[in-house]
Amino acid sequence: MEVSVIRQYAKSAAVRQAIISACSEAFAVSGFHGASMAEIARRAGISHTGLLHHFPRKEDLLTAVLDLQDERSAKYLADHRTAGEASDPATILQGMVSTLVERDRYAGLVELSAVLAGEAAATAHPAHEHFARRYADIRRFLSRLFRQLADEGRLRGTVTPEDLAAATVALTEGLHLQWLYSPERDLNVEDILREMLSAFVPELHPQDGE
Amino acid sequence: MEVSVIRQYAKSAAVRQAIISACSEAFAVSGFHGASMAEIARRAGISHTGLLHHFPRKEDLLTAVLDLQDERSAKYLADHRTAGEASDPATILQGMVSTLVERDRYAGLVELSAVLAGEAAATAHPAHEHFARRYADIRRFLSRLFRQLADEGRLRGTVTPEDLAAATVALTEGLHLQWLYSPERDLNVEDILREMLSAFVPELHPQDGE
């Protein structure tokens, strides 16, 4: 009996995972508003009724997809942060830029983020608060890094740490957007971001780095 | 008879304009995929049949909205470019940054652009080619400006004119996106962009400028 409950649970979790994965694809292609529950069920290979059993409303799917993205981002950062190095702000920045080169593995996620972040800019969108909070959180995190660099005399120029944080978020989002639109996906997001930031944090410059 | 034809034409043009305006609002709120023809007709205050008479498919509406945006951008640039000053690249950049401060007048357009640019990042979207071309055009235009500044020794740092062009587009799009998400729309897009660019084009710096 217990084994069958566990088996049932595992099966249910696998179905949920398949749905979320299918849903991410559907949202990336058609947006949250454009994707229909029927399309998502079809992509997941289950019936419409089966889908509604797991996720009664499309908003529930959106929450699941965004939660998964946050989870992956957290894991992503944790994977690339080694204990000893994590404390230095320049090393963290360096790590952030380096991870971008792996975005090809996450091309679907980059596309999903761009589509949802654009769509949810409308204040009535159910993911609006999620993205507003995410951008504010990242800006706060980056502001602290740049502030520490400024205090240690390692920040060049007149831009404030807060403005540089907003600019860094803008560069990342805006370069990824252009990358999605570049015919061969040949826009070098990582190099351009590193070059731009190293004008303010010289030690990030490729020639001065490893 | 002739007068009635002209009157009919003017009336038809006015209806088209009302539809496009209603459609811009609907796209900004729900995205291209999310906005329904019924919703657009309701916002325009006409019947569904009346809407289909002017725009048989939603794609036709998208084309009309994007054409209008391009037209406004062109007019916008022309309005802010006075004959004698236009030739100097720094003046053109200065003008571009200054016009951003008026974006409040165009808040709906900024939102519409963000929503559509995000949504159309999916390659199957009917506006994908439009945005791909627009970004490539702006990058080419800016690359020429930065190249001229570099040739005249007025560009600081090691970033290439092409990379700086992509970064400028990224900053504009990414800061506007965060502006749409900032609770009081209090993110200062213009100041941050000017500060960032003046690290590379020192004469753009507020203290050195007018």
Question: What are the defining features of this structure?
Answer:
2 domains; homodimer; Arc Repressor Mutant, subunit A; mainly alpha; 210 residues
In short:
The structure is a homodimer of 210-residue chains. With 210 residues, chain A is an all-alpha fold.
DSSP, total strands of chain A: 0
Measured by residues with Cβ under 8 Å of the partner chain's Cβ, the largest interface is:
A-B, 54 and 53 residues
- Number of DSSP helical runs of chain A: 9
Estimated radius of gyration of chain A: 20 Å
Low-confidence stretches of chain A: none
What percentage of the residues of chain A does DSSP assign to strands (E)? under 5%
- How many structural domains in the coordinates of chain A? 2
How do the SSEs of chain A run, as a string of H and E?
HHHHHHHHH
The N- to C-terminal Cα distance of chain A equals 58 Å
